[in-house]
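Two entries, shown back to back:
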Amino acid sequence: MEYLTIKKSNTRDTATLAGLGMLAYRIFPDSECINIQLLSGAQEESTIPFKDGERFRLRNSELCLIIVD
């Protein structure tokens, strides 16, 4: 499992994960969800609850969302 660490204050940003490459995310505070889009290779995206410890899958990899202040 890989961990995606996101700062609460950054509503839009990018990150790089060793197993998946670069991704972009956007936090939607109104609906309390986050959209995560994988940018490398065939693009893939997922919208999940914006909740610490939320687990989800992208390109057959399990990820865990870690939210920091």
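entry 2 starts here
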Amino acid sequence: MEKLLGKLLLVAACFAILCVLGWTSPENPSVALNANPLKASHEQYQRISASNYYVQNGN
């Protein structure tokens, strides 16, 4: 019974931490946090795409 109570307390504490983090997080995080480097640099995206093309068709 004590193990079950301990596990429930741990789960409740983790849920409380997640709720607090979600509540205090900004509504719209900055774009820099979610930036995709391939979308930011079109030249880099073309180089990577070209190298994949050559690897796939290099038979």
